[in-house]
Amino acid sequence: MLAPFEGWIAFRRSPYVLAIYDALPADLKLSALNEMVAIIASGFISEAVNILRGSAVWDQLHPRLEKIRLDIRIELDKTLRARGLNVEIPGVAPREFRPWQ
Q: Most CB contacts within 10 A, which of 32, 55, 72, 92?
């Protein structure tokens, strides 16, 4: 992977990488997950949710989310719920879905 922390490249690369995630070797799988964590930790919540929508990597990503600041995890949870995605975020209590929140 080139330019691991240049956001505009990551935003374009990540959807393609996650689409073939199961076919990647272990080192590239780790890089893909680390890149998604970096995108989320940098506060690009909406972009991350767009990339991850329909992705099958939530189980692998879940334990890595614990390292992200709590305020960002809460925002991630709100964004996911607002878009109708029910994904458990570590350290964030599950709440009743209320689209007006």
A: 32
